[in-house]
């Protein structure tokens, strides 16, 4: 599963990139969404990698994210059932979960070089692989 976090705002962003952010449920800065890994989502991530960061989220970190920031569409949210359903490949609507998590800014900031450089060069943008779990813990 991919966890995608929007890092930069919407000033001087192309309309195509704005539409991709809308499709990913990332309306503003520090919002996070969870998506299954497939080719369509990977192409979408390549389109918005200069404005967001993403990586594969682990099961324990997903459970912690749902406990603190998860909201149900209707009624109450069963966290354990939602985690099992998402890891099994179900969509968020099928497990009664809103797929947008409002996170706070990370404690002690992003990486040293800021939000305009890729993660491979010491910044905050692009693919983090498993290190996205550390960023999510800083933002909870």
Architecture overview:
With 140 residues, the protein is an alpha+beta fold. It has five helices and five strands. The chain has a five-stranded mixed sheet, with helices on one face.
Q: Give the strand line-up of the largest sheet.
A: 4-2-1-3-5
CATH fold-level assignment: Ribosomal Protein L30, Chain: A
Termini separation comes to 19 Å
Give the DSSP E fraction (strand runs of 2 or more residues). 15-25%
Number of helices: 5
**Percentage of helical residues?**
25-40%
**How do the SSEs run, as a string of H and E?**
EHEHEHHEEH
Instruction: Catalogue the unreliable spans.
Output: none
- Mean pLDDT over the full residue set: 92
CATH class: Alpha Beta
The figure for the number of domains is 1
Largest sheet composition: 5 strands, mixed
Which architecture would the CATH scheme give at its second level? 2-Layer Sandwich
CATH superfamily: Ribosomal protein L30/L7
Give the overall shape, derived from the CA principal axes.
Answer: globular
What's the alpha carbon Rg, rounded to whole Å? 14 Å
């Amino acid at each position: 599963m991919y966890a995608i976090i929007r890092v930069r705002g919407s000033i001087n962003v192309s309309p195509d990139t704005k539409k991709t952010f809308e499709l990913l449920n990332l309306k503003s800065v520090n919002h996070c969404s969870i998506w299954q890994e497939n080719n369509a989502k990977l192409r979408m991530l390549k389109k918005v990698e200069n404005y967001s960061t993403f990586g594969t989220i682990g099961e324990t970190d997903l459970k912690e994210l749902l406990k603190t920031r998860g909201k149900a569409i209707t009624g109450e949210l069963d966290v354990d059932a939602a985690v099992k359903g998402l890891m099994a490949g179900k969509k968020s609507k099928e497990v009664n979960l809103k797929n947008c998590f409002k996170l706070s800014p990370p404690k002690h900031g992003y990486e040293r070089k800021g939000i305009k450089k890729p993660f491979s060069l010491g910044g905050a943008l692009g693919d983090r692989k498993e290190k996205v779990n550390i960023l999510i813990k800083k933002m909870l």
